[in-house]
Input
Amino acid sequence: MAVKLDKGLKRKGSPIPSSEAALKRMQAAKPRDTAPEKALRSALHKKGLRFRIDVKPIKELNRKADIVFRPAKVAIFVDGCFWHGCPIHGTQAKANAEFWEHKIKQNQERDKDTVIQLEAAGWRVVRVWEHEEPEGTAQEIYEIVVKRKRR
Ligand SMILES: [Zn+2]
Output
């Protein structure tokens, strides 16, 4: 992907190259099975729920959700606190703050757009912060899924 940089940041000695390198590194390591995702999945399994992981809820929209309940049309996104700008942990980038701020803002806009598009297609979207306690979150999701299955 292209990383757009502000002109002002391109001067010699700017910290940007390391940001790009860091970005690439983090993207390459885009964790498929983060600990918070695994904890949530296992809590959902214990409740007897079955689901797909890391798939597109709808074909027309090229975005994958972390946990997908197809019959109930419920899509779960587990958002990393840093990447998606969690209000509690999302402001920790000290180095290259401007670069990260821009990147995180893009993610947030994309997140919003994803919700709008999925909801327009009749889906219920649940976004979960990675810091959220899995048992409580699983209970909430369970109730949503069961209710929608009964429609
Ligand atoms: Zn957080």
In short: The chain has four helices and four strands. The chain has one domain: 33-149. Confidence is low (pLDDT under 50) at residues 1-15. Residues 81, 86, 88-89, 129, 131 surround zinc ion (CB under 6 Å).
